[in-house]
Design goal:
about 240 residues; mainly alpha; Tetracycline Repressor, domain 2; two-stranded parallel ribbon; HTH_TetR
Length: about 240
Amino acid sequence: MGVKSATVPAPVAAPFRRPSRLSPESDKREHLLAAAARVLVRDGTAGLRIRDVAEEAGVSTGVVHYYFGSKDEILIESLRWAVRAPVERFAELRRDGDHLWALATLLEVSLPHPGVLFDEYVLWLEFWTAVSHDPALLPLCEELAALYRNEVAQLVLDGTAVGEFAPIAAPHTVAERLIALVDGLCFRSVVGYSWMPIEHVREMLRTFACEQLGISPEALPTVQLDHSGSLPVSPH
């Protein structure tokens, strides 16, 4: 089987932005969440101020207080908003049934590309810091992490069931290994380790995934991301 290659749309360059076609109330909240996410990435939790979120969103501080009761709530809701949308988009892709394509896309969009994908990792780092100081936030941290975890596990299970994957261990074990490597390599890349450029991370993730899932490296499609922000689709 030859290598398949295609360029797919994905949110990799634009800043956090609000979606279209929402109700006015939902639209305003999404707009505030996008603004809050940008401020958090820029200034961190320690530097987060309500007035900065208001200024970024172009609204009064009263509007921000109406939607969010505290800085912790802003962090929580911003991360929840940032995590859910890409997970939902990937779930749609996984259900298309092209498991090799879905795996290649998952690995590519897990990389901290400059823009939204990088910023999502920064939000996670901020949230982990908050959780380390407030254990009451741990259940939510687990809930959000489980969204990605469950999608990876389901992809491995689905691909194994139809014979596209031949995992070297139990599917859930392989899924946990993949997630652990994604976290370990990508967060080091985000922090800026000189020996962890994104190209090196990509190579290691793809090689490891092929080894763990019994896939020939030549069979795993090459996915290149553009900047439109639409749902990636299989070329088939």
